[in-house]
Amino acid sequence: MGRYWWGPTLTVLGLLLTACGPVSMATLPGEAQPGSFLGQFHHVSQIASTVPANGDLNPYGVTVVPESRGDLVAGDFLVSNFNDRGNVQGRGTTIVEISPRGQSRLFAQLSHLPPGESCPGGVGLTLALGVLPDGWVIVGSLPTTGHGNLPRRDPAGCLVILNDEGFPVETLTNQDLDGPWDLTVRSTPTSAIVFVSNALGPQIGDRVGAAAAELADVTGDANVIRLDLALRGTAPPKLVKTTVIGQGFPWAAEKAALDLAPTGLALNARGTLYVDDTDTNIVCAIREALTRSSAVAAAAAIISSGGALN
Q1: What are the backbone dihedrals phi and psi of residue 39, each rounded to the nearest 5 degrees, phi first?
Q2: Overall number of domains in the chain
């Protein structure tokens, strides 16, 4: 996830498998290893292009709309674009909405933020994307500078909250949000818990404004955080509390992907948050993620490493 450039299409594997990852990582049956998870899926269908009118490329974030509200239609996919039309990483600003039948339209273009709201470094959408109750959409931003250089700000990026018509209404920023890369959500009618993995953090070497191609020695540790939000109907969600629940997840600058960092997040019914790290090919389990008040070290939470994850 996030390591290679994926084609600008929404692909369906079996039972809409792509809702779990980048939208066009289609593995054909002949390419799957015997006994692999993807090997059980034998039907691959491209249903739509994810390229909007402005030419943004590299679909990253995918989420399914849970209920119809405003311009959001239950069962549709929202897809965030990471690259601009020139294929520069971290410069995409659009979210497209695609129906299961392949109808595609622009949901949001985040070229401008509301007055009084800001995102350190600007807007460049990541795969952090989710839908909250009442039609609020939350998306991560990790902007780059120049020709895909790492951001000059530290911390950098933000979370942008949009209404059900695709208009940004507020941004969330603080010292614990440093390049929000992926997220997952657990909601009730009056509150939401948003887990976010950061792609940046305290580093060895100077990342500021340098090109990813020149940053082979720039690495660091990233955090996983929990955001507690209060939902207030027609008023935008309010951030109540930020808690660091995981720390020490390695990140490293990398030319082809901009950054290798903790990427995939999944929460099970018992409140365990699973986190995968692209740089080290590990999966970690953060237990009691919904309620814990202290951070777990990644090295102490590994449940799988290397092998087929590499």
Answers
A1: -65, -20
A2: 1
Structural domain for 108, as ranges: 9-309
User: Does any domain span residue 84?
Assistant: yes
Separation between Cα atoms, residue 237 and residue 231, nearest integer Å: 5
The whole-angstrom separation of Cα 171 and Cα 154 is 17
Q: Pick from 14, 11, 36: which is nearest to 22 by CA?
A: 11
Are 234 and 241 within 8 A, CB to CB?
no
Q: What is the pLDDT of residue 203?
A: 57
Model confidence over 106-149: pLDDT tens digits? 999 998 899 999 998 889 999 999 999 999 999 999 988 767 77
Q: How many residues does the chain have?
A: 310
**More confident position, 254 or 153:** 254
Please state, in angstroms and rounded to a whole number, the distance separating the CA atoms of residues 281 and 310: 5
Output the pLDDT for position 198.
95
Q: Hey, how many other C-beta atoms are within 10 angstroms of the C-beta on 16? A: 16
Would you say 161 and 168 are in contact if contact means Cβ atoms under 8 Å apart? Answer: yes
DSSP helix/strand/coil, 206: coil
Mean pLDDT of 263-273: 96
Which burial class, exposed, middle or buried, applies to 307 when counting CB atoms under 10 A from its CB (0-12, 13-18, 19+)? exposed
Q: What is the pLDDT of residue 14?
A: 41
CATH number at 21 reads 2.120.10
Q: Hey, what are 272's tokens? A: 């365990």
CA angle 125, 273, 302 (to 5 degrees): 105
Is residue 4 in some structural domain?
no
The owner of tokens 């440093």 is 178
For residue 230, pLDDT over 90 is answered with yes
